[in-house]
Write a structure and sequence with these properties.
Elements (H helix, E strand, L loop, with lengths): L1 E3 L6 H4 L14 E3 H8 L2 H5 L19 H10 L2 E7 L6 H13 L6 E5 L3 H8 L28 E8 L4 E8 L3 H10 L13 E7 H5 L1 H21 L6 E6 L8 H14 L3 E5 L15 H8 L20 H8 L6
The chain binds guanosine-5'-diphosphate (GDP) and magnesium ion.
Length: 332
């Protein structure tokens, strides 16, 4: 083997010298052995590529970053669900219940079509993600390269809606309840910026605390505060669904629910109410009660497949979709 210092000479590959010299006697040609002997740098000769700085990892495993979401949202319309709620409100349980219903073909009106974050859905459904016992992430989407499975982020679920026969892509964030606590107590909202670009917000409240005598007043007060904070935070509020969890073990008084709607009206928010039982301890309702109805309510009333560029007559009611498509990457 030989290598030539003459530009354009291919003797190393073809064995033929550009100047028709004998490789062994050509003054420009050096044998590999002589290069090693003079230079001693054997690594230069046998390593054609630099070693990667970090090992490659499969994309789209755990939760999705905002960048990845923006990329996907540029390709097809996706429904972003904004989720808020105090620790233990039942946020993670609702996502787990939705995933398990879909996985077991028990989600009324929908069938599972695809997910770009199956690993993350598996992880939370196995109880592997516990914000309250571990480190609380400081932002919604850490860069995926960190590979930190404790980072909050979005979960993706593509479902086929049976009555319309079209697929809907949902993005759901699994967020720590402490972020909502900080919003209520100290108006800290930087980590909840993603709510601005949500199609709908699920405001999750533990129905049991709204029902039991000892916790009712405090829970009602804090829920009203949360409504006020959201009204202050949202510049163009999407529809808000007050999701009352633990319907299997509790039914809050009608007056309490009406008071929340009233509070919303006074703050300029349109609030509807949904009752769910992600799991069922008491046996009075089925586990997963209310989840498919919540999804359908989140899609709005029209039943039309979502689209980027609505017809002119529908332009006003669908303005949000255009806005998001035009500025897909405004949030880092
Ligand atoms: N019985 C019952 N338990 C629930 C329901 N939703 C949540 N839980 C339980 O409440 C606890 C806290 O729920 P989790 O979803 O982790 O709360 P998060 O902090 O808001 O994510 C878990 O032990 C759940 O199993 C529900 O609808 N019914
Ligand atoms: Mg949780």
């Amino acid at each position: 083997m030989a290598e030539c210092t003459q530009e354009n000479c291919t003797v190393a590959d073809t064995g033929t010298c550009l100047l028709n010299n004998e490789p062994a006697s050509c003054p420009n040609c050096k044998s590999i052995d002589s290069i090693i002997a003079s230079d001693g740098d054997i690594d230069k000769l046998i390593q054609p590529l630099a070693t990667p700085l970090e090992s490659t990892r499969f994309p789209l495993s755990y939760t999705l970053s905002a960048d990845k979401m923006s990329q996907m949202m540029g390709q097809r319309y996706c429904q972003v669900i904004g989720i808020v709620g105090a620790p233990d409100a039942g946020k993670t349980a609702a996502i787990v219940s939705l995933y398990l219903l879909a996985a077991n073909a028990k989600l009324k009106g929908y069938t599972y079509a695809h997910s770009y974050s199956l690993m993350a859905l598996n992880e939370i459904s196995q109880g592997a993600r516990r914000w309250n016992e571990g480190e609380i992430p400081d932002q919604l989407t850490l860069h995926t390269e960190l590979g930190d499975e404790r980072s909050a982020g979005f979960l993706h679920l593509r479902l086929r809606r049976l009555d319309r026969d079209h697929v809907v892509d949902f993005f759901l964030p699994d967020v720590p309840g402490e972020w909502t606590t900080a919003l209520i107590d100290s108006a800290r909202a930087d980590r909840l910026e993603f709510l601005q670009r949500s199609d709908v917000i699920w405001m999750m409240v533990d129905g049991k605390t709204l029902t039991e005598h000892s916790t009712r007043r405090q829970a009602t007060h804090r829920t009203k505060l949360l409504i006020q904070r959201l009204a202050d935070l949202l510049t163009d509020p999407p529809p808000i669904i007050l999701v009352i969890t633990r319907h299997d073990v509790s039914t809050p008084p009608e007056a309490t629910i009406s008071a929340f709607k009233q509070e919303g009206l006074e703050c300029g928010l349109k609030i509807s109410v949904a009752f769910i039982a992600s799991f069922a301890d008491a046996g009075t309702v089925e586990p997963g009660f209310g989840i498919s109805e919540l999804l359908t309510a989140s899609l709005g009333g029209s039943g039309e497949p979502p689209c980027y560029w609505p017809e002119k007559t529908k332009a006003l009611e669908n303005l949000r979709s255009i806005m998001r498509y035009t500025y897909p990457a405004e949030e880092s």
